[in-house]
Amino acid sequence: MLNAQPMGFYSPSSLIGDARRHGVVVLPADLAFSSWNCILEPILSVSSDRREFEPISAQTSEPISAQTSEQTSGQETAAAHLLSRSVSAEPAATVFALRLGLRFIDGLGSRSAVLLEAALKQGPFKSLADVVERSGFSAAELKILARAGAFETFVKGRRQALWQVLSLLSPRPATPLLDYLTGCANSTDSEVELPDMTEIENVIADYSTAGLTTGAHPMTFYRAWCRKRSIVSCLGLRNGIDGDEVEVAGGVICRQRPETAKGFVFLTLEDESGMANVVVNPKVFEVYRRLILDNPYLRVRGRLQLEQGVCNVIAKHFDVLPALKDSGVASTECATSDEAAAHSRGRSQSASQNAVELTSRNFR
Fold it and tell me: How many CB atoms lie within 10 A of CB 38?
């Protein structure tokens, strides 16, 4: 399904999020392991006699213990996650994870796919320099890949990878006198250590380069803020009682207004726990129209409706969520609905919140 995008009702981001909530390990696009398309990558082998678990390589089928530490990015975490879930695995079984392909990275196209597959026929990439040398990618494509974190196995950190890409593309001319005066005579550009990105910065980078993430859902960074205000998660709505007054918040992944619905609008909110349906009657929609249509994250107050296993929130009031600080913690005060409406007209939300806007299916 992911390799057939664009298709269907849900975006790749929502499909991946749902898969992860159902126990599928999803690994990021990485030039040490990825192809153009998404693939199933073996990450655990189960011994038939001793029930020992050994992470293995997707490309060489060798135990990871036989590889260098630089070649194991992302797999050890996935292996530890699955180890606790695989005690009942069949003998001599192999456990797979979903490895994302480079197809989702914005700025890469059919030319990039042809170049990548041609290079991989000669063997997997061994280093960032190997990618630069063999891939045939343009300078712009290499920079995009660095910003997308696709060199993570070879070089830890997007900033460091981008720095090394730039160094390889445009080697610094020799300046012996300047190096001597600044104490850098024995250093190179690739040895410069740049500060690591924060978790929220990595998530922002994921959404700005690929429109999805294998890291934390953006709503994760609001959760503590929501708890203080008794705003429940999408999954938490199911613990309520029919008719309860509730508040829920999430990213808007769908806005629908069917012609046969007599002006009713149906929203789907998403957070780290799942999805929630919001029903908006025509009068409420007219009051909050611009706020609903123009803001990627919404806080909704309304009446909980539980009927035959279906959970809906009948909306009465809407607010936007506050901007995320650089630390990933929501600011202490939420904008009022009037302020939110003004913001939506001017699109004046913070850059960080806009950068993690979820892909949404919308009517206009």
Answer: 23
The separation between the first and the last C-alpha atoms of the chain, rounded to the nearest angstrom, is 27
At which residue do the structure tokens 């769908």 appear? Answer: 254
Residue 21, amino acid = R
pTM for this entry: 0.78
**Cβ(359)–Cβ(14) below 8 Å:** yes
Q: How far is residue 129's CA from residue 363's CA, in Å, rounded to a whole number? A: 46
Q: Which residues contact 174 (CB under 8 A, 6 or more apart)?
A: none
Residue 200 in 3-state DSSP?
A: helix
Q: Residue 88 is which amino acid? A: S
Task: Give 221-261 as a DSSP string.
Answer: GGHHHHHHTTPBPTGGGGGS-TT-EEEEEEEEEEEE--GGG
Tokens representing 144 are 């995009």
DSSP state of 32: T
Distance between CA atoms of 208 and 143, rounded to whole angstroms? Answer: 14
Instruction: Give the model's pLDDT for residue 174.
Output: 58
Alpha helices, DSSP H only, in 95-157?
110-120, 128-134, 139-147
For residue 6, is the peptide bond before it cis, meaning its omega torsion is within 30 degrees of 0?
yes
When pLDDT is averaged across residues 86-95 and rounded to a whole number, the result is 59
